[in-house]
Design brief:
The structure is a single chain. The protein is of the alpha/beta class. It has one domain: 3-Layer(aba) Sandwich (Rossmann fold). Helix content is about 40%, strand content about 15%. The chain contains eight helices and seven strands; from the N terminus they run H-E-E-H-E-H-E-H-H-E-H-E-H-E-H. It has a seven-stranded mixed beta sheet with strand order 1-7-6-5-4-2-3, sandwiched between helices. Helix 2 links the parallel strand 2 and strand 3. Helix 2 crosses helix 8 and helix 5 runs parallel beside helix 6.
Length: about 200
């Protein structure tokens, strides 16, 4: 609980210093309609962080313009006419344990959701907000989540420190996917404010 409170307080403090524009580079910011569904890819804390950062736009309202579900299945996507599906990549043993699932089960769920989204022509936005959620080991849960989601994405948003090895540049080149880089997670708020303008 203290960790969650600390995260919220840190983000709140940083948001006070956010400039009027997002520090983004790479491909232009894409535009999407609402409603939006935000979910995890790996059961890490990134999804909840994204939910908070989107709320800080003050223009996109939780449970009205966007929803957050940590473990949606196909049926959850049918509930509302989502205009975009945002996967926030990041895995942790703690998150998987709290969900009561293994990384294999999480990958299987992601594959089904990705397929359903593609079948229904719902754009997929792949997001990496945590710079330490990377590894050179191919079997690392975070790399597996990247491989499951990113090749099917309509857009990738990645914090620069998470792309030091050019991993997402390679995905962009191979799959022809727009890639926008941000300096830090706080810039994500201003980016979403532009991308999901009402």
């Amino acid at each position: 609980m203290r960790t969650k409170i600390g995260l919220f307080l840190l983000l709140a403090a940083l948001l006070c210093a956010v400039p009027a524009f997002a520090a983004a580079s790479g491909d232009p910011i894409k535009k999407y309609g609402l409603p939006l569904l935000i979910t995890n890819a790996g059961q890490g804390p990134g999804g909840k962080m994204a939910r908070l950062l989107v709320a800080q736009t003050k223009t996109i309202v939780l449970d009205t313009d966007y929803w957050y579900k940590s473990e949606p299945w196909e049926a959850d996507i049918v509930d509302r006419p989502y205009q975009a599906l945002m996967f926030v990549i990041g895995s942790s043993d703690k998150g998987l344990g709290a969900s009561g699932i293994t990384i294999e089960q999480e990958i299987a769920r992601l594959e089904k959701i990705v397929k359903h989204a593609k079948d229904k022509k719902i754009p997929i936005i792949a997001v990496l907000l945590e710079k330490d959620k990377r590894s050179a080991i191919a079997s690392n849960p975070n790399e597996r989540c990247i491989d499951t989601v990113c090749p099917f994405a309509d857009w990738m948003i990645v914090v620069k420190d998470g792309n030091k090895d050019g991993r997402f540049d390679k995905l962009k080149a191979k799959h022809k996917i727009p890639l926008t880089l941000i300096d830090n997670a706080i810039d994500f708020t201003q980016l979403c404010k532009q991308s999901f303008a009402k």
